[in-house]
Amino acid sequence: MSWYILQCRTGQEREIIASLKQHLSSEALSEAFLFQSERLWRAGGGNWKLIVKDMFPGYVFMESENPKRLSEELEQYRGIVRIMEDPGYLHSVYEEEKKRLLMLCGKEHVMRLSYGYRENGVNCLVAGPLKGMENQIIKADWHRRFAQVEVPLSGKKTIIWAGLGLPEERTLWKAG
């Protein structure tokens, strides 16, 4: 099964997913989804709150075994979304990119928090999806609990935001 990308207005992703699932045949579309990441957000009073944010705002991912049929059935959406394709060819997520996203986010398509610390200017991750990927972190802000990570998507470099927590916080936040 291959993944394909559709671009829409930020904030309309869930409506587009619902519409795709309702209007496209199962021969064209196996699944439509988006990726999300857990983040820590400082709420009123200085307390941290676990939230889930869209990882690729304005993008919907589609899974299909039949890209030609998918492209044909997406014709009805051309006025409201940007279908990422050259004439007759949907832009796919490359297999290695798909594997990386599944490694980071799992089948639920949600990237959980990664836990670690910064020592002598070096990010040290002890748990979570970013463990072992420290060299791909563009920026880590341990005070605000986020990292910017560079990942390839459809042949282009993309920056995603990932949530960071301190090791002693691991018992505070339950995944999923």
What topology emerges from the helices and strands here?
Elements lengths: L1 E6 L5 H11 L7 E3 L2 E7 L5 E7 L4 E6 L2 H7 L8 E2 L1 E2 L2 E2 L1 E2 L1 H11 L4 E2 L2 E6 L2 E6 L9 E5 L4 E8 L2 E10 L11
Parallel strand pairs: 3-10, 11-15
Antiparallel strand pairs: 1-5, 1-6, 1-9, 2-5, 3-4, 7-8, 11-12, 13-14, 14-15
Your description of this structure?
This protein has 3 helices and 15 strands. The chain has 176 residues and is an alpha+beta fold. Strands 1, 2, 5, 6 and 9 form a 5-stranded antiparallel β-sheet that branches. The chain has a 5-stranded mixed β-sheet with strand order 12-11-15-14-13, with no helix packed on it. Strands 4-3-10 form a 3-stranded mixed β-sheet, with no helix packed on it. A hairpin with a 2-residue loop joins strand 11 and strand 12 (122-127). The chain is elongated. It starts with a strand and ends in an 11-residue tail after the last strand.
Distance between the termini: 25 Å
Mean pLDDT: 88
Give the total of beta strands: 15
Number of helical runs? Answer: 3
How much of the residues is beta strand, in percent?
35-45%
Q: Give the H and E element order.
A: EHEEEEHEEEEHEEEEEE
Secondary-structure-based class equals alpha+beta
Shape: elongated
Q: How large is the radius of gyration?
A: 18 Å
Sheet with the most strands, sense and barrel status: 5 strands, antiparallel
